[in-house]
Amino acid sequence: MSTLTPAQLAAYEKDGFLVIPGLFSAEEICLLGETARNDRAMDESSSTMDDGQGNDVRLALWNHPGDGIYGMFARCRRIVDAVEQLLQDEVYHYHSKMILKDARVGGAWAWHQDYGFWYQNGVLFPDLCSVMIAVDPATRENGCLEVLAGSHRMGRINHILSGEQAGADSERVEEAKKRLKHLHIEMAPGDALFFHANLLHCSAANRSDNARWALICCYNAASNDPYRESHHPRYTPLNKVEDSEVLRIGRDDARRSRVEFANLVEEDQSARSLDGES
Ligand SMILES: O=C(O)CCC(=O)C(=O)O
Questions:
Q1: CATH architecture type of domain 10-233+242-267
Q2: Which residue's alpha carbon is nearest to atom 1 within ligand 1?
Q3: Ligand 1: does its nearest atom lie under 6 Å from the Cβ of 109?
Q4: How many CB atoms within 10 Å of residue 40?
Q5: Taking the domains of the chain in order of start, what are their residue ranges?
Q6: Ligand 1 within 6 A of 216 CB?
Q7: Are 145 and 137 in contact (CB under 8 A)?
Q8: Taken in order 180, 122, 144, 265, is the CA torsion positive or negative?
Q9: Collapsing DSSP states into helix, strand and coil, what is residue 230?
Q10: Distance 101 CA to ligand 1 centre (A)
Q11: Which residue CA neighbors atom 3 of ligand 1 most closely?
Q12: Is the beta carbon of 114 within 6 A of some atom in ligand 1?
C-alpha cells in the first residue's frame, strides 16, 4: 500500500527525516502513555546512563514487538507500510524503545547516528529507519529531538565512547553544523518522525517540569539481514496488523502491556565495543 506522497518521499530523501503530524489519535496516544506509565515491567527493565552532566538517560527496550499495544504501534500499517516505502523493501522489526525522559532529571543525548551503533551489530548497509512517536509534547524546554537536516548523506561517521555515552566524532559534527540546518523537532502527542539511520541527531536535557516520553520503533530492510548475531534480531518476518488494532488492543486491559523487555545492561555491546576517548 502506498501511504506517502511523492513530495514526502522526496523530502525524506533530501533531509533524511519526515514528520507526519497527528499520525496517531489522542485516544491511541493516551492508551499508549497510560499503559507505559503503569507498566512496572517497563520501569524495572529500564536502564539509566549518566549523560556526563549528572542527568539520567533512561530507556526501556524490546526486540520483538509482541501482541500488546506497543506491538500494535510497531506493527500497524500506518507505520510499516510507510517505512517499506521509504526503504523500498520489506522491513522487519529491529527493536523498539521507550525513551523515558523524565521531568527535571531526563538526560541529554549526544550527537549520533543510529547506524554508528548498529554498524557494530553486523549490519552491512544503513538501510534502517526509526520512527519516533511523541507520547508527551516534545518542546525545546523538555529536550525535543534535534537534527542536522541532510546529514544522512555524510555516510557513517566514527563514534567514540565518552564516559557512559557514545557520540559521533565531534570535529565532523561541528563542521556539519556550519553547512547544514540544525532543527529542533517539536512534536505534539501522536506526531511521528521518520528518520534515516545516518541522520545526525541529539537532544538536550529535560530541565522542565514536564516529562518527554517517546516511543521509537526501528526497522531494518529484509535484504539487510545482519551477517552475524547481536543483541538485536536478524531477519524475523513482521506480521503487520490493521491500524484499528491499536485501539482494540489498547482498550483491552488484559492484553495491552504484553511484551518481553530486553536487558540492555547485559546484552548491548554496540556502544561498549567502540574505542573510548579515555
Ligand atoms: O529521545 C531522545 O531524546 C533521543 C533518542 C535517540 O537519539 C535514540 O534513541 O537514538
A1: Sandwich (2.60)
A2: 99
A3: yes
A4: 8
A5: 10-233+242-267
A6: yes
A7: no
A8: negative
A9: coil
A10: 10
A11: 203
A12: yes
Does the beta carbon of 200 lie inside 6 Å of ligand 1?
no
Q: What does the DSSP assignment read for 39-50? A: -HHHHHH-EEEE
User: In the chain, which ranges are continuous DSSP H helix?
Assistant: 6-15, 26-37, 40-45, 69-75, 77-87, 114-118, 170-179, 245-250, 264-267
CA of 201 to the centre of ligand 1 (A): 8
Q: Give, for all 278 residues of the chain, the pLDDT tens digit.
A: 568 999 999 999 999 999 999 999 999 999 999 999 999 999 999 999 999 999 999 999 999 999 999 999 999 999 999 999 999 999 999 999 999 999 999 999 999 999 999 999 999 999 999 999 999 999 999 999 999 999 999 999 999 987 778 899 999 999 999 999 999 999 999 999 999 999 999 999 999 999 999 999 999 999 999 999 999 999 999 999 999 999 999 999 999 988 999 987 667 666 666 655 43
CA 142 – ligand 1 centroid, Å: 13
Residue having the nearest C-alpha atom to atom 8 of ligand 1: 114
Q: What is the pTM of this model?
A: 0.96
